[in-house]
Amino acid sequence: MAPPPAVAIAPGVFRIPTIGSWAVNSFALLDDDGSVTLVDTGVERAPARIVAGLAALGKHPADVQRIVLTHAHPDHAGGAREMATRTGAPVAVHSGDAGYAGEGTSPPNDRSSVSGRLFARVQNGRFPPVPVAEELADGQVLPVAGGLRVVATPGHSPGHVSLLHEPTRTLITGDAIFNVLGIRYSPRVFCTDFRMSKRTAHVLGELEYDRAGFTHGPEIVDGAREAVRTFLARTPR
């Protein structure tokens, strides 16, 4: 069975699966004026799935007014250049990842383990470079659907961010944590600094939200904060 083109998480907040039913996700936030903000753009071939997801919401690429990237990895920023071209929307990413997005290359991965050093030898980490129009900062509130707060959660990449949509109390985790066979940290080999990623993920337990959307894994629409805090409480920083 084909995955749905878009899944409602909260009023005006939708998950758009770009690989499988939830293996890699983008998100669309709808404003009252009809405009759309995209969060993450999947791999390079993902724009077709994103456009289909928008169509299911009655939206067109021309409705997209902003593209926000949680970080500069190929499965999150790979489709950014094409979506920016199709929509004419500016791309925003945290200052720590802006240079990597502009160059179309992933930040270095954690080489503190044998697997990390081996992965560094074989990974490509390239994607189409995308011009960055805005560099995000921790605590910044974007004028998106009533307020989208930038929450710095570095470690997975130097400028990794999670996002909190305050009006609907919906958290978009980025890769700070996954929801694949349960809530878990990103694998070490995908992180720039795995220890930092684990440490900063605990910020998510201090925020106020009811729902969580994961860029890898299905959303949690009931008791999300409790589920995240339970996971964090049993794992060391």
Automatic annotation (TrEMBL):
Domain of life assignment: Bacteria
Classification via SUPFAM superfamilies: Metallo-hydrolase/oxidoreductase
InterPro entries, per database record: Metallo-B-lactamas, NDM-1-like, RibonucZ/Hydroxyglut_hydro
Ranges of residues in domain Metallo-beta-lactamase: 23-216
Name of the protein: MBL fold metallo-hydrolase
Organism: Pseudonocardia zijingensis
